[in-house]
Design a protein that fits this description.
Elements: H1 15-25, H2 30-38, H3 47-56, H4 62-73, H5 79-88, H6 93-105, H7 107-118, H8 126-138, H9 143-154
Helix pairs in contact: 4-6, 5-6, 7-9, 8-9
Length: 157
């Protein structure tokens, strides 16, 4: 006699529980969490109501999501790239504009650090300079910041 294994199906998580699981891992913007939850919602579910409840309890905050993303990305990317990522996550333009001055203050320092890790020495010709510029632009740094760093590298500092 062979025994049949009964495979029990995991119970479906409520949208609220699912949202909490996402938020435990990291901060999410409202739009980002909405996009994730809508994929799992049934016709009876009200995603906006769940999100309103989470926001009312202080568990969902776009401003915290901005702070976290800026903090995590700052040592790798420039202001333009970070602002782009925030927009992709559905962050309101006003919150992005509020974060820009803080990022602008540390832009040169962040760019210098990234350039130093990647290159560390002044470019040895036009081709090398263009390569360094392209790399820094791909990281989201403005041309004026990039040229200040390269100028400093040419001056030995």
């Amino acid at each position: 006699m062979s025994e049949r294994k009964v495979v029990s199906k995991k119970p479906e998580l409520s949208l609220h529980t699912r949202a909490m699981k996402y938020l435990v891992r990291r901060e999410h913007s409202r739009a980002e969490l909405h996009a994730k939850l809508i994929l799992k919602a049934t016709s009876d579910d009200n995603v906006d109501k769940v999100l309103d409840d989470l926001a009312a309890r202080g568990w969902l905050s776009d401003s915290r999501a901005v702070e976290q993303l800026v903090r995590l990305r700052r040592n790798r990317f420039g202001m333009q790239r970070i602002a782009y990522e925030l927009r992709q996550k559905g962050i309101d333009e006003d919150l992005i504009n509020d974060a820009l001055p803080q990022m602008r203050e540390s832009e040169l320092e962040a760019a210098r650090s990234i350039w130093q890790k990647k290159f560390g020495i002044a470019p040895e010709g036009a081709k090398d300079k263009a390569r360094q510029i392209r790399f820094m632009q791909s990281r989201g740094f403005m041309p004026d910041v990039i040229f200040k760093i390269l100028q400093g590298a040419d001056d030995g500092g």
